[in-house]
Amino acid sequence: MMHHYNRWPPWLRRCRCMCCKIIIPICCFQGIRTLFLPTTLDVILLALLILLAAALHLEWI
């Protein structure tokens, strides 16, 4: 099965690969921050980051 990102330019594939590596630590940081200072913006941002992490790791984007 050919993945969609194989047809992308090399610089875009590198960018996606780097995003896959840093999204989990960013989600952890945001989760800890949301536990201590739970504002609406923090909760929404955490949900968006978790969705982005899932999409990147499941190769939806």
Order of helices and strands: HH
Sheet having the most strands:
none
Strand content: under 5%
Write down the overall mean pLDDT.
86
Evaluate the radius of gyration: 14 Å
Extended strand count: 0
Structural class: mainly alpha
Unreliable stretches (pLDDT < 50, length at least 5) are none
Give the overall shape, derived from the CA principal axes.
elongated
Q: Total helix count?
A: 2
Distance between the termini: 15 Å
Fraction in helix:
over 70%
Any key phrases for this structure?
61 residues, single chain, 2 helices, mainly alpha
Provide an overview of this structure.
The two termini are 15 Å apart. The chain has helices spanning 10-36, 40-57. Helix 1 runs antiparallel to helix 2. The protein has 61 residues and is mainly alpha-helical. The model has no long low-confidence stretch (mean pLDDT 86).
Question: What's a quick, concise take on this entry?
Answer:
The protein is 74% helix and 0% strand.
